[in-house]
């Protein structure tokens, strides 16, 4: 008599499906299966991509499905579409947040990239995706204030002339003109490490300001951001994101300078820092 092969319990199966969800077969599933915001789904469709790339079909179900969003370390080649992979879930989460918590205003997501140009490219891609969703994405600039309460008082990009303004910082404008620049709130702040660290430590001597509302921290080109050159600033930003439900995504093209070790030691440092932090 043949013995029946043992299988996972119902509970184990459920956990396994959460850890290893079905791949995203096409972009329509973003709406039909993962129920992302209809406007966001339309904006994705408008990009005209036929099929998801490997990194997209693997990570989107992980980040959009199920109840508990994971922290992720993703390694996928340059040009494989990582930007869309992290922007769709971040934007969708904010649309939901606006629905469920309409009174909470402030920076809900920070995307860190090693160069100003990369940050600017992310914002350009993000702008196409947020159209009509009510989500606001902003490129960090010199002179922007990032308040202790997590609100970003930033230039209203919609009211800016697009030509040339990219290079012009609020600081470089005369005080009178600067004061007249419309100020608004932003949901997603895209920044280089130094720009945000400077803003968070402006007018402060010891501790940095916090970003208490941030639920998603994305580190693009994470191998570079964890490189000795940026590492301290990147960790400072990580530490300033004090919300207990913070999720972190590390996105990289290479395992580079031993990104896995760096990630592990980063997490250890992070835990130690949290342990040392006086309860507040
Ligand atoms: P990475 O960050 O992984 O280097 P990007 O996110 O910059 O890659 O994407 C590279 C290019 O591929 C971009 O021009 C982007 O618009 C395009 N792209 C993204 N997703 C797809 C897709 N599913 N099919 C075709 N092209 C895509
Ligand atoms: Mg990229």
Please tag this protein with its features.
6-stranded parallel sheet, alpha/beta, binds magnesium ion, 280 residues, binds adenosine-5'-diphosphate, single chain, 11 helices, 3-stranded antiparallel sheet, 9 strands
Can you describe this structure?
The protein has helices at residues 10-19, 29-32, 38-46, 54-64, 82-100, 116-130, 175-179, 193-201, 222-225, 228-240, 259-276, and strands at 72-75, 109-112, 137-139, 145-146, 152-155, 183-184, 188-191, 216-220, 247-252. With 280 residues, the protein is α/β, with parallel strands linked by helices. A six-stranded parallel sheet has the order 1-9-8-2-7-3. Helix 4 (54-64) packs parallel to helix 5, helix 5 packs across helix 6 (116-130) and helix 8 packs across helix 10 (228-240). The model is unreliable at 155-171 and 175-184 (pLDDT under 50). It binds adenosine-5'-diphosphate and magnesium ion (MG). Magnesium ion is lined by residues 82-83, 220.
Biggest sheet record: 6 strands, parallel
- Mean pLDDT metric: 84
Spatial extent as radius of gyration: 20 Å
Indicate the structural class: alpha/beta
Report the total helices. 11
The helix/strand series, from N terminus to C terminus, equals: HHHHEHEHEEEHEEHEHHEH
Give a nutshell description of this structure.
By secondary structure, the chain is of the alpha/beta class.
Describe how the helices and strands are arranged.
Layout: H1 10-19, H2 29-32, H3 38-46, H4 54-64, E1 72-75, H5 82-100, E2 109-112, H6 116-130, E3 137-139, E4 145-146, E5 152-155, H7 175-179, E6 183-184, E7 188-191, H8 193-201, E8 216-220, H9 222-225, H10 228-240, E9 247-252, H11 259-276
Helix pairs in contact: 4-5, 5-6, 8-10
Magnesium ion binds next to helix 5.
């Amino acid at each position: 008599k043949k013995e029946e092969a043992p299988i996972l319990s119902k509970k184990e199966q459920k956990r396994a499906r959460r850890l290893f969800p079905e791949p995203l077969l096409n972009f329509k599933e973003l709406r039909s299966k993962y129920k992302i915001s209809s406007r966001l789904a339309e904006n994705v469709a408008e990009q005209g991509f036929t099929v998801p790339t490997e990194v997209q079909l693997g990570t989107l179900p992980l980040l959009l499905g199920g109840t508990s969003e994971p922290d992720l370390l993703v390694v996928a080649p340059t040009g494989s579409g990582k930007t869309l992979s992290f922007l769709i879930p971040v934007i969708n989460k904010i649309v939901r947040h606006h629905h469920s918590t309409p009174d909470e205003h402030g920076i809900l997501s920070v995307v860190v990239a090693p160069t100003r140009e990369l940050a600017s490219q992310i914002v350009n891609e993000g702008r196409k995706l947020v159209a009509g969703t009510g989500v606001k994405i902003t490129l960090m600039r010199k002179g922007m204030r990032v308040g202790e309460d997590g609100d970003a008082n930033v230039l209203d990009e919609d009211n800016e002339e697009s030509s040339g303004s990219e290079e012009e910082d609020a600081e470089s404008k005369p005080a009178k003109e600067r004061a007249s620049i419309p100020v608004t709130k932003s949901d997603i702040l895209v920044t280089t490490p130094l720009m945000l660290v400077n803003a968070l430590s402006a007018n402060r001597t010891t501790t940095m300001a916090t970003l208490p509302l941030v639920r998603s921290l994305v580190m693009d080109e994470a191998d570079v951001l964890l490189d000795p050159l940026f590492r301290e600033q990147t960790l400072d930003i990580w530490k300033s994101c004090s919300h207990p439900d913070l999720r972190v995504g590390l996105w990289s093209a290479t395992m580079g300078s031993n990104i896995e070790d760096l990630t592990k030691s980063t997490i250890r440092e992070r835990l130690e820092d949290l342990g040392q932090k006086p309860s507040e």
